[in-house]
Each structure stands twice: as structure tokens, then as C-alpha cells.
Amino acid sequence: MKKTIRLDMWKGISFFFLALFLLILVYPLFGILRQSVISGEGQFTFAEFQKFFSQPYYTKTIINSLTVSIAITLATLLIGVPFAYFYSFYQLKGAKFLFVIAILCTMSAPFIGAYSWIMLLGRSGLITKFIRDAFGIRIGSIYGFNGILLVQALKLFPLVFIYMNGVFKNIDSTLLEAAENMGCTGIKRFFKVIIQLAMPTILAASLLVFMRAFADFGTPLLIGEGYRTFPVEIYNQYLGENGTNYSFASAISVIAILVTTAIFFLQKWITKRYNFPISALHPVTKKTPKGIRGVLMYVYCYALIAIAFLPQLYIVYLSFRNMDGAVIKDGFSLGNFEMASKRLLGRSVSNTLIFGAVALIIIILFAILISYLVVRRSNPLNNGIDTLAMIPYIMPGSVIGIALVIAFGKQPFALTGTAAIMIMALVIRRMPYTIRSATATLQNIPISTEEAAISLGASKLKTFARVTVPMMGNGIISGAVLSWVAIVTELSSAIILYNNRNITMTMSAYVAISRGNYGLAAAFSTLLTALTTVSLIVYLWLSKSEDIKL
Amino acid sequence: MSVNIIIKNAVKKYGENTIIKGLDLSVKKGEFFTLLGPSGCGKTTLLRMIAGFNSIEGGDFYFNDKRINDLNPSVRHIGMVFQNYAIFPHMTVRKNVEFGLKNKKFPTDQIRSQTDRFLKLMQIDSFADRMPDKLSGGQQQRVALARALVIEPNVLLMDEPLSNLDAKLRLEMRSVIKQIQNSVGITTIYVTHDQEEAMAVSDRIAVMNAGVIQHIGTPKDIYQRPANLFVSTFIGRSNILKGRLNIQSGRAVLEIGDYRANIDGVADKHLKQQDVQVSVRPEEFLLSHAQSDEGIPATVDDAVFLGLNTHYFVHMDDGERVEIIQESTMKNDIKAGSRISLGVNTEKINLFSSDGSQNLLSGVNNDVTQN
After folding, report:
1. Separation between Cα atoms, residue A112 and residue B266, nearest integer Å
2. What is the end-to-end Cα distance of chain A in Å, rounded?
3. Of B74, B88, B89, the CB nearest to A454
4. Between 20 and 30 A from A173 (CA), which of A301, A484, B47, B206?
5. Does the ipTM surpass 0.90?
6. CATH of domain A56-232+273-319
7. Would you identify the CATH topology of the domain B5-229?
8. What is the pLDDT of residue B322?
9. Selection from A216, A213, A222 nearest residue A114 by Cα
10. Best residue of A5, A448, A454, A456 to probe chain B, by most B CBs closer than 10 Å
11. DSSP alpha helix (H) spans, A457-547
């Protein structure tokens, strides 16, 4: 008799998630679809799509987004794969330092890179002026395509590095020896064997980088100027000078979702051809870099990390400089921070921490329950829930923002500007990643451990709480720290959902930049950087390993 | 408290696939009972049905008089040892062993003393506060055993517990398991595919194939008088020769080619002329290198000296290949290429019906109840 009651509890949880996801994922997605084909008079019409495709002004945004995202993906592979190769196969001095800084680069808030590079290489940037004054040379503009490529490639290559490091570590040294034995060495071996073995991972990393680049909002907004991308266009349509046009913003969103979905399945399709498992019984022993090649290796790794980390360092430096608007004055002080304390600093910080913490707790709870449903109680309903939970993966942040505004901005919900809608956005944005890692963790736990607990007299609920969850613990907690960082630096959905009440640190920094108050922006950004750095230290301390999963 | 286990007409289905149909089994109180068979024969499936982790599609399972079909695994009061040990990785050795006692709401002081007793019994008391990942395979195995036994279960179930250990540890743990089972006196069902391991630990063995129990008996029973050809080839090595049973003046005579031998043990009901399959274990050949008219003529392909024994790989003149084991002698005069003549130990060999389904000799002890 008891058995049926327990079954009902998990069934109940299944139905809860089904209902919840219908409400917070399917309903907003449907809302966007509906909005995009319904005219102001309530008629069904493809007018908005016609408008989009008939005017190059608009079609250009998607083409631009695609072009720059592909360029960024290729660039990150080009600089990230060699970096990972040197890191994984050679005994570099200061490897741990390189690792930590690389992670810090990729964890920075979305606009810090663009903002800082403008301050360095922009029209009146530090380096621009220095080169002009010293050599009389004018360097090219970093606004537009080049700027976005520079900023994003430097921010996202660590993702490629983390992924590749993971797979390089799993390449069995005997495979390399076998290749060498058969006469395949050096650069030939790198392309014929190592890269082939790493192909599934390269594709996975490419998809991740592409999705990030494609959906990125902060960078093109600041540094894109005439090079218009679709997330910025959605924002403009939502909050543009010409007034709000939800229908057109929705139409662009639908087109963006179609593009990301296509890319998602294209990647899955290509990955299928490389479906083989690898695991190293004999990991490769790291070699000591020698000679001129060793020197070049060091130069490459350290120069790359230095350039990638430069923006954040410069922002921290700026935050202590005396500033007047966008102009740097002589001397150092805490003036910027004092100003920040008068500009919603307290509210921003407390909102950031509270929203982040609440969202994180919800995400962890959901991830544990859903992964349990999927792995241990696999049935069509639960697999369906898992698929629904992956929807946000193909929805760029600004699209999620718009979708939530359309779905919950008016009666009966009217949640715009509340903590609830902000937390909802954060949960939706980050949930797919945490569910994937929780599912992977649970799949690696043999079910016999839970059976052992049951045969020792523990109830199913107790087994779940005392055995299953603690065993998943490590994987989930370390993943959660990375989710936390993504949450506190969230911009693209927050910019559509924020107001004075639910403003966060990232938003405060962004507002300061957009008003030309660069000192204030530097102060907020520095505090954000401090927060992400502390989080990373906590992560490294918790995980006790270099295996980062994003 | 130990129980006897009675299984009547057990049925297991996966979808439309029937894995076990109508299996009967009875395990005596305190007995060390082994389910032995090739992988996929249904032995682990049956064990998990007893444990409650697999659903039961038909039949009745009893511990003593109590029907357990619908009991939750957690209240069947079973100690289980898993193939991968299933030690809780997030708990110390002591916490692992205590886990069952805590669930059964034992008083604190008793949990302590009981746990200590079994940690000591399994000789892991010095590791009590270590985490499992700091233990070797053999030590983890001891923890798993202590954890299963500490709750003093009705039944101990073990699913290939030694298969993850290296050969030397396997021998050691096998005697530990046997010894502990003896001293605790608990009804035990043990699953393995390793026939030597099964013979070493078991009171009785059930040989399974394709979801059907072929033979239940003591190790001696199933080795010396296997119920059918499958058991004969699965337990130990057997050379299978084609032969014919003739009756001459009331006595059974086995013919293999031109070779003749009197067989005394043929059961009365099988005393008739028929084709037979002869199972001759490698040590049951009589080998003489003198050419004689009586034996089966053969040629040695290879002779492998292994110390105690020497193995001969031989082909008979009709092309049949057989393997022979003889105790090594000081003189080594049978080399590859030698012509030899073979006889069989008529007391030890087994004769099976031409389809291999039954042993024709008397003295087969088989506890399988025929349906």
C-alpha cells in the first residue's frame, strides 16, 4: 500500500514541473509566437515578418549576428586550442595561475570587456592616444565588427580551453605512441589523431561559444555602433525612441530562435558522426617545454592571458582614479565608490545577492529533482519535462526577457519590475546547464548504491535524501558556483526586466556606462569583479580539482 | 534469525520477453546456496527478485511461511552484497556499517557495540573512520560484507561479489566469505559465473541456463554425476565423444569407434541399445603410449608441462580433438607427434542420451523438482 503513495509523490512532482514549465517556458514562448503574428488590431498577419525581411536594415542584424558569431567561434578555436594543447601536454610554470586567470576572464560581466577596450583602444583611448602622440600612427577603429570580435574572442576562448583541457586529459598516451609507432608524428599527429579524438568536444565547445556570442547583448551595444546585431535590435524595438513595438521585437525573437534551433540541431547532427567514448588508462605525461619552441610557448600563453585580462585590470585601476564623467583626472581616490554608495549601491548589492541566492537555490532544487526523474524514473512524461527544460538553451537572454514581459507584464500577473520576474528569468536562463550536469552526475552513480540503502531498511524518500542527494552533492555544488557567477553578471534579460526597484550591480554598472559616468561604472564593475573572483576561489576550494564544467 | 526460502513457479518478464518461466527452488535454513550459470542465464535476475529490486510477474516467494512478493525491499530484512560493493562514498566505514542499524532504530549503545563487533569480525576495525575511497578493493568488500551482516538479516544475498577483485584477493576473500557464513550461520544465496568459486564456497549449487535450473546438488554431485550435457560441459572441462550403448548378456557395453568398455553404473530404465554422448573429463582418460588393440588410437599434437600436471592436446584417428591431463612423471616420454592409445576411466565418465538432456547413469543427485 505504501508503495503506491510513494509513486504518487514522484508523479506529483512530475506534474508540478509539467505545469510550471508550461507556465514559465511554454506560455511565454507561445506568447512571443502569438505576438509576432497578431497585429495591433488583433488580426492574424505576417506583416512584421514581411517588414523584417523586406528591409535590409533589419535583415542585416541577423546576418551580422551570424557572421560575427561564426567569426568569434573560429577565433576562439584558433587561440583556445593551442593554448589548451600547451597547457595539457606541457609542464608550464605557473599553470595554475594561467588557469585561474583564464577562468576569471570568461566569468567577467558581459560589458566590462567592451567598456574597457573602448577606454584603451577607443577614439580617445589610452593606447590610441599614446600611439598617436608617440608615433603619429592612427590605429584602426575598434568599433563595429572588429571590436566585437576582439572583445568576445578574448572573453570566450577560455571556454574552449576548459573543454579542450578536459578532453586532452582523457587521451590515452598509448594512442599517441601507437600513432608515432606507425609513423604519424608532430604536427601531422596533432591534426590526424589528437584533433580527431577531440572532435566531439571541439564541436560542443563551438556550440557553446556560438550560442554565447550570438546572444550577447552588452558587447555589441557598447562597441558595435553601426554594426547592428539582433539582440540590440530587439532591445531597441522594445525600448526604442520610436516607442515600444512588441510585435516587431517578437518577430525578431522568433527568427533568432529559429536560427539558434537550426544551429543546435546542426551541431547535434555533426556530432553524431563522432560518437565514440574515450578515457585514459594511461594519461599523457606532461613534457617540459625546451628550446626556442618552449620560449614561444611561454610567450604565447602568458601574452594571451595578459591581453585577455587587461580589460578587467584597467577597470579596477580606473575605479580608483579621479574621474569626471568620461574624463580621467589626476590622482587617486575612493571618490567613485563614494558616488556609487549614493547611487543605489546598497540596493544593487542586496538585490544581486538575494536574487542570486534565491535563484540558485531554486535551480539546484529543480536540477536535483528533474535529474532524478529523468535518470531513475525515466518515462515519456519525465523525458518530456527534460526536453522542456532545455528550451531556454536555444533562447537568447534578450528573447527570454521579451517573452517574460509579454507573458507576465500585464494582468493577471503584472510582474514587471518585481523581484519575482527577475528571479524567474535567472532560473530559466541557468537551469538547462545545471540540469545537464546533475543528470550526468546521477548517471554515473550506480543504482546499486541506492538499492543497498533500501535493502538496509531505508525508505525510498530517506534513500533519496540521505544517499542520492549527498552523492550528487559534489558535482552539483561546484557547478552551482559557476551558475552563481553567470547569475550575478546577467545582463541581456535583466536589461529588459529591470527598474529602480529590482536593479542589480550589473545593471547599475551598465546604467552608469550608458550615462557616460565612467568612474561610477568602473566602481560598480570592480565590485562585480571582486564578487566573481571570490566566487571562483570558493569554487576552486570546493571542487579541489581543475575540472570545471560550464 | 535464518530462514528457509521457497520459490514456487517464479515468472520474470521484461515486456513480452519471458526471462524465467515457472522456476521452483528451495533453499534450506543456514545453507550456502549458489546460483551458477553463464552470463544472461537469469541468475542475477532471480536474485534481484528475491531482494525485491526486480518485479515478480508470477509465482510465490516465501521466507519460512511468509510470502514476500509484495513486501518492500526495505522490510524484507535482507543483507545484500553488490558486485560493485555499493559502498556509500560520502560516509566513513563506520557510518556505512551503522546505516542499516540506524534505519532499524536500534538504541545508540547497541549500534555502537554491534558495529564494533562486525568491524572486528571483518578485520576492518582499524579503518573505521576512513572514507571508502581510501580503501583497497578487498577492504571495500569487507565493508560491504560487514554492512550486510550487521543488521543480522534473515538472508544474505551476494551478486558476483568477487568479480572485481584480482585473482589472489579473490581466493582470499572467498575463504573469508565461507568462514563468516559458517560462523554466522545465515541462509545465503550467492550468484557467480565462476564454477571453481561456486564449488569452493557452496553447500549446494543450482546450475542455471536460459532461465531454467538444470541441476541442483552438492559440488561433488554436479561435478561427478552432472544431470545433463550442459552441466557436464559448464562445470569443469569435458571432452564430448560420440558413442553407442550396447547390451551384451545383460551388461552395458560402451562402444566408441572400435573401443569397447563395460559400464556398470547405467540406470535400469536406460538399459537399452542407443546412441549416446560420452563426457570424459581430461583426467578421466587412461593414456598408454604403447600401441595396443584395445584403446582408441590417437596422436599427440602438443604436450604442455605445468608442474603438477601435464596437459596433452591430442587428436584421435577420426579427427576428434581431445584434451588430457595426467599427473607429471619423472620420465617425459610422450612428446608431440607420439602415437598413443586412449582408454577411459569407466567408473568416472558420464553417458548422456543422444540429445544430451539426461544422464544415463544411476547416482545422479538432482534436487530440481520436475514439473
Report:
1. 93
2. 43
3. B74
4. A301
5. no
6. 1.10.3720.10
7. Rossmann fold (3.40.50)
8. 92
9. A222
10. A456
11. 460-463, 469-488, 494-497, 505-514, 518-543
